[in-house]
Request: fold
Amino acid sequence: MEQQQLSNATRMVDARDVHKFFNQTEVLRGVSLSVARGEVVVIIGPSGSGKTTFLRCLNHLEKIQRGTITIDGENIGYRQVNGKLVEDQEASIAKVRAQIGMVFQRFNLFPHMTALQNIIEAPIHVLGLSQAEAEASARALLAKVGLDHKADAYPNKLSGGQQQRVAIARALAMNPKLMLFDEATSALDPELVGEVLKVMKQLAEEGMTMVVVTHEMGFAREVADRVVVMDQGQIIEQAPPAQLFNDPQQERTRTFLGMVARAN
Amino acid sequence: MASTGMYMGVLAQQFQWNIVWQFLFKPAIVQGVIITVVLAVLAQITGTVIGLLIYLLRRTILRPVADFYIWIFRGTPLLVQLLFLTNIFPYLGLTRALNSSTIFNDLGFQYIPLSAFLGAFLAFSFNEGAYMAEIMRAGIDAIDPGQMEAAKSLGMSYGLSMRRVILPQAARVIIPPLGNEFNSMLKTTSLASAFGVLELYNAGAGIGQSLFQPLELAVDLSIWYLLMTTLWGFVQSYLERRFNASTTDGMTNTTFLDRILGRGNKSPSPTKETTAEAAISGGRR
Reply:
């Protein structure tokens, strides 16, 4: 495995043998994935394959039953005590989470706050920035996602694409080491998908480390450094996009890509 | 004619409106009003805090404690709880210390044993807490779980997420039933009259009995209770409008006059599309 060759210094995400159960059902069956600093990894796969669950494990929105996950060398969610996983104190989980940005399928903007207030909330109350500092960087981020004119708009006055761009700016305001995208364009009307993908692509070009769960094969082909295919709670294949899309090795990958191609 | 009138007077008492007006603003009655309002406000605030704590406790390992609390306070009559808590102080050796307090006299009020006032306050608060826990649950659980996940993903702790993200949104759901609880609380405080608290009912009923004019004083009491609940109704509808506005549309450029006249905010009404987006982002109605 080429992934094993990554040195600790360049490794941003290191998940090893992650197992996850929902009641009796094993939804992640030994997933191991390393992501290098600055790498863009796109996870694809049929629905129910566990890709979203795996992504949510990376910032401990989901608990895991076995395995380890480290982000930039730090354990997330668990300490190893005598070979057993022990869940961390809430405060130390929050500390690691503060360094990981996450963008959700349904945006999850705070509806009682304006776009600007959404963005400055955590920098002020978690990082301890002053109102002025936080607002200055929030306005810069809004400009970056092309929404500087919407600073004072409430989420329900924004289109889905605009809301998602605000959500990306909100995550970036924490100055994260790593960005997780959970089907960030799946809830959008087709004509609004492009504006969000554009922001994500720009972010990738700036060198942000990204793990992206998506159904947008065009994005995977164009932006990903590596595409990971999941099925039935396992990684079945991973390769650079050109190789994976043109010459998939696994039968299940071919079936999945064929289904996606027909749907489009 | 005169003798007939006297004869009738013995058999049937005449309702006297002048007595109604004469006693409506008597200091004893006004004091009763103040005690009633103070007792109801304190108990409602404390009960709301208890309700939130019980809700939070139910999400921890101490859930049985919270369930036991609710079982007790919803399963026994409020009157029994009052009997218990207004009489608990002798058992704690606190009666003398409490009842030597001159706090009510110092305020220019008639004497009320502090043990009775405190006991009533505790009983109303504890009882209310058991009901508010359920109202809190309904309000908080109505919020899209994605809101808490988003807050957590930004590194916010559970407490901070609750305070800054969840509760402000839950307030919209909580305020209508909370308002009804307080309306009810204003009237329920009259039960404290049975334990020596000189609140509005006690003051009015006492005067009515000593004058042999209970009906006139009953009208006085009705006027005062109606006044209190009606005023509260205005406050409640203002609060409901305010929280509706700030969680679904935002309070943009709304003047105070707009608010009390219920004109809401001036921003254009959302289009069909943005309303659908709002539903997705958790801005449910």
Observations:
- Residues 46 and 112 of chain B are 21 Å apart (CA to CA).
- Chain B is about 75% helix and 0% strand.
- Confidence is low (pLDDT under 50) at residues 249-256, 262-285 of chain B.
